[in-house]
């Protein structure tokens, strides 16, 4: 699997989350995939992660992942992105994140490690 193939898999995964197309996103991940966030709660299963995402995304009018940069090596992609969110209540902002995606030999995501910070859009006037 080439470096570009891994980057493309990550983009495909993120586009599935934007829709949201949970089955498509889940199909890109290994059954035993784990997720870590900088929230102090430790690792969670992919199913736990998706349940949290479903609750979050349910409060948004739309989300979009703007990828700033991707770096890859065999078995992983390190990415910086901003998740642009528009809430149903009109609030807009971005989740600035640095995320590592680990892959297995079957080209499935096995590990997601995310450091993220939400920054609301500035409201002038």
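^ Assign residues to that structure.
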């Amino acid at each position: 699997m080439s470096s570009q193939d891994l980057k493309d898999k990550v983009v495909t995964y993120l586009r599935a989350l934007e829709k949201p197309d949970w089955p498509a996103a889940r199909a890109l991940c290994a059954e035993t995939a784990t997720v870590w966030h900088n929230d102090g709660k430790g690792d969670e299963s992919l199913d736990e992660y998706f349940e949290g995402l479903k609750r979050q995304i349910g409060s948004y009018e739309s989300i979009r992942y703007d990828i700033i940069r991707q770096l890859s090596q065999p078995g992983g992609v390190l990415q910086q992105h901003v998740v642009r969110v528009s809430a149903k209540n009109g609030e807009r902002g971005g989740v600035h994140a640095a995320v590592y995606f680990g892959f297995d030999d079957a080209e499935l995501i096995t590990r997601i490690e995310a450091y993220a910070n939400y920054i609301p859009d500035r409201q002038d006037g």
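Residues 3-120 form a domain with the Nuclear Transport Factor 2; Chain: A, fold (CATH 3.10.450.50).
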